[in-house]
Write a structure and sequence with these properties.
Layout lengths: L13 H11 L3 H13 L8 H9 L8 E3 L3 E4 L1 H23 L8 E12 L18 E16 L2 E7 L10 E6 L5 H6 L1
Antiparallel strand pairs: 1-2, 2-6, 3-4, 4-5, 4-6
Length: 190
């Protein structure tokens, strides 16, 4: 078999490498192994993992926007939405700038939100002394999911970004979780 060699390749940006890791469910070790293999063949395609880790950290809300308690955590919904929009705009910057008419002043962003509870998990290193009501074997999670970024211009809708897998956890943004058993009352309160 004949080997094909080519000096032409396009290097991944840290954001593109992070998307590759997320989209293909690569572990850190798998990514580093692929990166080493490419380097060994003279193709330094992938940025160092620590650079990707820094980009990944920009996807998380800062601590000042989280309200953490013993049995729950809440993030500012406004901040999570803004962070999500900023990240999506960063990814779609070229498309939006190229096709956004100058006279448009409003961009529509559609979300869905949801609540899910699950129970029966293995108890993991949590000690809720004298409070059998609480344990990490039961969790209620509230989330938002971005669905679409679009504009309406001259009576026509233009979509800049669309979530084609709205039931996937890929774009699911947690707003709140509680270590409590899901009940009808808790669902309404959450």
């Amino acid at each position: 078999m004949r080997q094909v060699t080519s000096p032409m390749f396009t290097v991944y940006t840290p954001e593109e490498a992070l998307a590759l890791i997320v989209d293909t469910s690569l572990t850190k070790e798998d990514y580093i192994e692929i990166q080493r293999g490419a380097k060994a063949r003279g193709a330094n395609l992938y940025p160092a993992y620590n650079v990707i880790s820094q980009v990944k950290n920009t996807c998380y809300p800062g601590r000042k926007y989280d309200h953490i308690r013993k049995r729950s955590q809440n993030s500012s919904t406004k901040f999570i939405k803004n962070l999500t929009v900023c990240r999506l705009f960063e990814v779609q910057r070229e498309v939006i700038l190229m096709y956004l008419p100058a006279e448009v002043t409003t961009i529509d962003i559609f979300y869905k939100w949801g609540l899910d509870g699950s129970g029966g998990h293995s108890i993991y290193k949590q000690n809720f002394q004298n409070t059998p009501k609480y344990s990490d074997s039961n969790i209620i999670l509230s989330t938002i999911v971005p669905l679409e970024i679009s504009i309406t211009h001259e009576g026509k809708k233009f979509i800049f970004w669309k979530n084609y897998s709205p039931s996937s956890t890929k774009y699911c943004r947690p707003i709140c979780f509680k270590l409590i058993k899901e009940t009808a009352v808790q669902s309404v309160l959450s």
